[in-house]
Structure formats: C-alpha cells, structure tokens
Amino acid sequence: MRSAFQSFLVGCRLSLAYRKTLLVLLLFESSLLVSFYFLWHAVYSSAPSGHLAGYSFQMFFSYLLLARFASRLTAGTPWGFFTRKIASGAIVYDLTLPVSLQAALFWQHLGSRLVTVILLSPVLAAGFVLSHGHVAAGSILPIFVLSLVLAYCCSFYFEFLVSLVAFFTTSLQGIQEAKALLVGLASGAFFPIELLPNWMKVVALSLPFQTFVYAPARMFVTGQVEYRTLFTQAAWLAILAALSEVALKRARNNAPLLGG
Amino acid sequence: MAGVVAVLLDQALTLSIFAVIYAHVSYVDGWDFAGMLVLFGISRTALGVADLFGEGLWWVGEYAKDGQLFIYRLRPISVLFQLCTERLHFERLAGSLLGLALVAYGVLSSNAPLSLADVSLAIAYTSLGVVFYFAVMVFGAAIAVASNGGTDAITGLWSLMEFGKYPTSVFGRVGTLILSTVLPISIVGFVPALSLLPRTHANAVGTWIMLVTPLAVLIFSLSALYAWRIAITNYEGTGT
Question: Do residue B163 and residue A181 have CB atoms under 8 angstroms apart?
Fold first, then answer.
C-alpha cells in the first residue's frame, strides 16, 4: 500500500513538474471546447427537430464537457510507457523493480492523470455554467464516480497492453497514431456514439474504448443508472487485465536491453 | 512512412467528425458537406506546404533550452533560414496531396461555375495561408526562444488553429471579426474556399473579409518576424 502511495505521489509530482505543458493542455482544451460549441451550435440550428439522436444541444454539450473530462482521465501517453526506456536501456530498472511493474505504473499514471483533470476542472466547470449545462439527478453521482474508476482501470490496462508492443518492434509511430484515432473516435471523446451511423455504432459498442469515455459521460447526462453498463466495464477490465498479464510475461522474455 | 501515416490519420479524425455531422444535417451555417471538404482540404494543403519548411521550428525551444541554438547563431547565415532548410519534411506533403484531392472532390460536387480568376484567387489566398501558418510557427518559436520553454509555446499557439478547420462564420460576427483581423486564421481555409464556392457564401459573411484578411496576414507575419528577431538577438545561450 505504501509503494502504491509513493508511486501515486511520483505521478503527481511528474505532472506538476511540467507546468507549462499543463497550461498548453488547458489552452488546447479551451480552444477545442469553444470551437466545438460554435460548430455544434450551428449543426443543431440546422437540425429540423432541434435534437440529434435524442440529444438536445444542452445535453450534447454537457456530454462533451464530461467526455473531455473522462477522456483526459483515461488518456494514454503519446509513446506508451516503455518506448523511451527501451531506447535508452533504462527499461532494465523497470523490469527489476521489487514491486509489481503494473501496479507501480497504475498508481503513477493515476497520479499524473488526476492532477491533469483537477487542473482542467475549472475550464470544464466554466463551460458547464456558460452553456447552461444539463444537470442530471444528484443520485447518479456515486455511480458516475464508480463508472469513472472502472473507465480509468480499463484504459490503463489497454494502454499497458499497447505499450508492450515496444518490446517487439521499434516502428511505433503508426501504431500509436492509429490507436489515438481509434480511441478518439470509438470512445465517444468528441461526440456521443449514438451519432455514428448504425453499423459504426454497433462496432464501437462492441469495442472496449466505449467504456473509457462514453459509458460514464452518457450515464451522467441521461441520469439513468445502468448496471449493464457497469457490468460491461467490469467485464472489459477483467479481459484487458488478464491479457496484459499474459503479454507482460511474453515481453519480459523478449526484452531488448540496449544502452550501457 | 510513419510520418505519412501520422499526417493522414490526423486528417481522418476531422473528416470522421464531418461525416458524422453531415449524416444528421444537410447544411451547417449554409455550408454543405462538399463546401466543408473544400475548406478543410485547402487548410490541409496550406499546412502541408508550411510544414515542409517549418517543421524544424517546433524544436527551437528545445535547442534554446540545451544551448544548441547558440551554435546556429555563430554561423554566418540567418538562424531562421538554417532551421527551415536543415531538413525538409517531404512526408508532410502527403497531407497537401490529400487536401488537394478533397478540394477537387468538393469543388466538383458543389457544381459552382469556376473561372480562371476564381482559381487564381484561391491559389493566391492559399499561398497567404501558407505564409500565415509559417508566421504562427515563427511566432511560437520566438516565444519559445525568449522563454527557453521547450515545445510548449508553439504547441499552445498551435492549438488555436483548431478554429481554422471550420467556416469562420459559425463563430458569430465577433468571432469572424477576430479570426479575420486580430488572428487571421480564416485565411487558411475559409477565405480561399469562398472564392471557389458559390457566391452565396461570400455574400452571407460580407466580401470585406476577402480584402481585410490578407492585409491582417501581412501585418501578423511582419510582427512574427519582428518578434523572432528580438528573441534571437537577445538569446544568450545557456553557458554550456
């Protein structure tokens, strides 16, 4: 438990050490939200019924704000956890840690993500107030938090799994970019999955990415407690955690130890 | 190859958002899907050309941080010229090619009557779009050098380019005014697209935008060069 707390603190400190990066992130998210506000406002003005796939503009924008929050909480790293360490040879320190590698990274990444979303919260809250955001019943809050926790866990194990690819190839840019695109589209980070065409909706709902953003954000906006959604998140968590455990064992046997 | 894939995947995300929007509505602020493709295609074309030379400027902050920039200053050639020509990023032209394909598809789909003058005007505006993108990179690089601040300054400034992907008119009158004069982002896609699409678009926003924006781009670009000059003159290295 102590090592988990220490790893968590390391994550927080690392995130706070790069304050300018956090400011850039705030500027980026603000620009994205302002541009999306006007863009989707124009889209809704053209919609004959004023609703798109059951979402009014207020609901849509509230969804978007929550989706950005969840998206930042569950965001991965641009190059994965191990790429640079493998290139420099520092991976040997990770592989010989006296604690579980997954657990250490889990808590460290959580610390880093929490600092980011806490700093982002005022921007999102301002967006919520200025856009007269749609507020669901307060009773949904504990379930929403539980769904967010599951979302973070699912996303972490997925990120861990993709990061392990670095043990097998150095050509990672294409893989990481493809991952970012797939997660961006299929997680619901930019719009609710209901807006996708039917066949894409079916595909997106059968992938794990919807558990990262769409599941918690939708639950909060609709105000409906959906135990089925929580069960789906838990099921994906079990699958991804098991897969990453197996993949880590294989990666350890394949670790390229460079540097010296 | 990976660089080309990265450029194309970046465009795929925005195109997917457009596809989702137009699956539900036929027009956004009077712009149909074809018009939106023309606008987005032009902005990507201009960005690809600007990136060909300007990609190296993203790392200026890092060079300033570790003192490497001082070596550039000692050489008897302009630092900006060295940074821009040190390595040409041809992979970025993949974005321009896809952009041109989108423009061609959009223009053909919109059935707008085009004259040689319209096309020439669009090319001239797109060239100014390249100048503007480049000026933003130079301005970001100047801030990065002045603050020894890594890539954060240029990345932060670049995040404002999000506004260039959509018709400026959706941001309202005040937004249009700001994006055409103070920070003339509308030059990267919106203004050139107006000259290729039916006149109704230009009439809706007012033809003043096509006259004022190029002027604003020139002022912005000169300001960026001035800022760069001040930053590079005052750079003292790191002592390492």
Answer: no
Residue-wise DSSP of B176-220: HHIIIIIS-GGGGTHHHHHHHS-HHHHHHH-THHHHHHHHHHHHH
CB pair distance less than 8 Å for A53 and B24: yes
Take residue A117 and report the two structure tokens written for it: 């979303």
Per-residue pLDDT of chain A in tens (260 residues, 90 and over written 9): 788 888 899 889 988 877 777 777 788 888 888 888 998 899 998 888 888 888 899 899 999 999 999 999 998 877 788 877 777 777 788 778 788 888 889 999 999 999 989 988 998 888 888 888 777 766 788 899 999 999 999 999 999 999 888 888 776 766 777 788 788 889 998 899 999 888 889 999 999 999 999 999 999 888 888 889 999 999 999 999 999 999 988 888 877 666 55
Q: What is the pTM of this model?
A: 0.81
CB contact under 8 A, A43 and B156: no
Q: Does B53 touch chain A (CB under 8 A)?
A: no
Q: Which residues of chain B does A27 touch, with a Cβ-Cβ cutoff of 8 Å?
A: 156, 159-160
What is the DSSP annotation of A53-93? TTB-HHHHHHHHHHHHHHHHHS---TTTTTHHHHHHTTHHH
CB proximity under 8 Å: B 138-157 to A: 149-150, 152-153, 155-156
Nearest chain A residue to B179 by CA: give it. A35
